[in-house]
Amino acid sequence: KNEVEQSPQNLTAQEGEFITINCSYSVGISALHWLQQHPGGGIVSLFMLSSGKKKHGRLIATINIQEKHSSLHITASHPRDSAVYICAVTGNQFYFGTGTSLTVIP
Amino acid sequence: GAGVSQSPSNKVTEKGKDVELRCDPISGHTALYWYRQSLGQGLEFLIYFQGNSAPDKSGLPSDRFSAERTGGSVSTLTIQRTQQEDSAVYLCASSQYRSYGYTFGSGTRLTVV
Question: What residue in A sits closest to B43 (Cα-Cα)?
Answer without folding.
Answer: A96
